[in-house]
Amino acid sequence: MTATRKKSGTSKPKNAKTARAAAPKRRKSKGVADIALEAIEDMKGVNVKVVDVRGVTDIADTMIIASGTSDRHVRSIAGRVVEKCKAAGHQPLGVEGEREGEWVLVDLQDVIVHLMLPRIREFYGLEKLWDLRPRQREASAV
User: Fold this and answer.
1) Looking at the predicted structure, is the pLDDT value of residue 142 above 80?
2) Which helix (H) or strand (E) holds 52?
3) Which of 40, 31, 50 is closest to 89 using CA atoms?
4) From CA 123, how far away is CA 54, in angstroms rounded?
5) Gap between the Cα atoms of 113 and 108, Å rounded
6) Radius of gyration of the chain from Cα atoms?
7) For residue range 42-52, what is the model confidence (pLDDT) as tens digits?
8) Residue % of the chain over a pLDDT of 90
């Protein structure tokens, strides 16, 4: 009679496919920018642009700029952004411009959302202001 040795520890799955199935599934959580973008898309925001402002300013990492078709539409988009972010556990630090509805700013700490009427957006040109490449910044500083 031969003695068999039992391996100590847990048994490992024989192949990688089984290993993935045995591992607990992790749900990828959405970032606040993704939640805000989803809310803007839900409300049919127009001409949505995401600008990475890391290295340009310390006030935020990302700026989202979008337009609405009317002041009521701009306010509705802002309301949906705030609602969805709160539901996901991201409390906005502030909301400015809701009463007028021409330009509503939602401060989500690392993400700042600018919702504007097209004429206001064109006048201020935030995309040009914040989307400067390093070479453009150096040239404009001279």
Assistant:
1) no
2) strand 46-52
3) 31
4) 24
5) 8
6) 24
7) 999 999 999 99
8) 61
What pTM was estimated for this model as a whole? Answer: 0.72
As given in the structure block, the two tokens for residue 119 are: 């004429």
5/56 Cα distance (integer angstroms):
63
Residues shown for the chain: 142
Top-level class of domain 32-141: alpha beta
pLDDT of residue 132: 63
54 in helix, strand or coil?
coil
Distances (CA, A) of 30 to 3, 27, 52, 116: 54, 9, 17, 25
pLDDT 10s digits, 3-57: 554 444 444 445 444 444 444 443 445 799 999 999 999 999 999 999 998 888 8
The token pair at 102 is 């021409």
**Crossing angle between the packed helical segments 32-42 and 71-87, to the nearest 10 degrees:** 140
Question: Which among 77, 103, 79 is positioned nearest to 92, based on CA atoms?
Answer: 79
Q: How far apart are CA 100 and CA 115, in angstroms?
A: 12
Measured between alpha carbons, how far apart are the two ends of the chain, in Å?
89
Measure the CA–CA gap between 32 and 88, rounded to whole angstroms.
8
